[in-house]
């Protein structure tokens, strides 16, 4: 086509020389030019048709686009309105959420406090349960002790009745023994006066003190624990002729005057009015008498003494000095 344009637009016109060869070339060129024009016409028609179709399609697309744009603008307006509404709702929800968040925080704080109180309550409950268990155990122990106490009380009631009877019997025996002791005391007083008359030493032993000792030097009043009995007395207003080196004798009898068999004794003769008086001395002491002195004498049994009343008599080598009594349980 460029070549054709080159030939058609050229200002130079070749010199025409008619011959048979040029005639064939001209025909050929004419047919070529005609074919080209035909192709151009076909293409023009094709492109024209296509152009009209594209214009129609473009118009339709433009119309559809305008409709779509209008529809989208309307939808956008609706969405914008909905968005504005949602913004307002969102602001309200934001405020409400902040309130709810604050309420949730307060609720969490209250939950923590409640949990702490619950833990403390559980601890207190455990402690209370433990105390209740202890109280139940104590209650059971007290009930057991109460039953035992009631049994003991019943036993004590019976024992009390028995003791009351025994006490009444003992009172009767005591009254009887008191009568006997009074009688024996009267007899001892008579014996004391008789000894004073029969074997007067010329001075007397007064203010007797009896001390019953155990092996560990502790005092006792029980007969079976008595290991040594110490008798102390005062000798006052001793006449000058009775002063100096003297022997003192201690004798012990039961309340009725019988000798005590568990005491080691020494038989001694004591001066008397008519004839010497034979005594069983449980102790003999060498004393340098003066006008006034306190004397201590003692005796120890070979075996346990029996409970009861005992008499103690004191003599010197000049005669009878005095007597007293004591009781062992």
Automatic annotation (TrEMBL):
Residues 1-23 are annotated as: Disordered. Residues 1-15 have a biased composition (Basic and acidic residues). Keywords: Coiled coil, Membrane, Transmembrane, Transmembrane helix. The chain crosses the membrane at residues 29-49. Residues 90-194 form a coiled coil. This is Uncharacterized protein. It comes from Flavilitoribacter nigricans (strain ATCC 23147 / DSM 23189 / NBRC 102662 / NCIMB 1420 / SS-2) (Lewinella nigricans).
